[in-house]
Specification:
The chain is built from 7 helices and 15 strands. It is α+β, with helices and mostly antiparallel strands.
């Protein structure tokens, strides 16, 4: 919201008072004096008046987690264990998921309280690559790669999938890299060949690799990793 609107919501501060306080240089946002009422602030902004804190500002948090099978990509669920249940209670507040995985999919999942960052990563025109390790019920044909690279028509959404890269690792396993995230996309792509996915594991999103983070564990992203993801999403 706008800084002047934030200030005008304080008890005893009218619109005229707000204008005057701003012009007198008595308002600081994140340690900088701000005189322009149109300045955008949000829940992460530290806002002070005459050195007194009006809003401390939330700390931005970015986590990666190794999702096990059997817990759902949701913050609450009446029946199932959620990925948030893997975190200590004190760590959960305000977090949401940036890019869900199916219940039986394992691997790299991102959690944050920064809605702007997660939107950037998951917008349809963010072409951040996501790499999956896939195991299938039937042998994987060499011809799948060309079909995936051309794109597949998804009638439900009336779209053709973006070119995807398939690296065949064995008779029943492969690594697939997508640059979008349609509903059940990997399973539907293999479903085109009537080949069921029996194991699905996300290894990488953009420059971020799950690596040896143990199953069910999580860690904070570094500032460089957060920025790298943002840059990757911007293409
Ligand atoms: N594609 C799927 O089918 N499932 C996932 O969990 C992720 C991608």
């Amino acid at each position: 919201m706008r800084l002047d609107r934030f200030l005008a919501k304080r008890p005893h501060l009218g619109r005229k008072d707000v204008r005057r306080l701003l012009l007198q240089g008595r308002v600081q946002v994140d340690g900088e004096t701000v005189t322009e009422g149109l300045t955008e602030v949000d829940g992460f902004s530290r806002i002070c008046l005459d050195g007194d804190t009006l809003q401390a500002g939330n700390v931005r948090r970015y986590l990666m987690l190794h999702k096990p099978a059997g817990c759902v990509s949701a913050t609450t669920d009446p029946q199932h264990r959620t990925v948030l249940d893997l975190l200590p209670e004190a760590e959960r507040d305000g977090l949401h998921i940036a890019g869900r995985l199916d219940g039986n999919t394992t691997g790299l999942l991102l959690l944050t309280n920064d809605g702007q960052w997660s939107r950037q990563l998951t917008l349809p025109d963010s072409h951040l690559p996501k790499t999956y390790y896939v195991e299938t019920a039937e042998p994987i044909g060499a011809h799948y790669a060309a079909t995936f690279a051309r794109g597949l028509y998804f009638a439900f959404e009336n779209i053709t999938t973006r070119p995807a890269q398939l690296e065949i690792l064995g008779s029943h396993c492969a690594r697939l890299t997508l640059t979008e995230g349609r509903y059940h996309q990997v399973k539907r792509m293999f479903g085109h060949f009537r080949n069921a996915v029996v194991r699905l594991h996300r290894e990488q999103i953009g420059p971020l690799v799950l690596g040896d983070l143990p199953l069910g564990a999580y860690r904070a992203l570094s500032g460089a990793e957060v920025a790298g993801m943002r840059a990757g999403a911007a293409g």
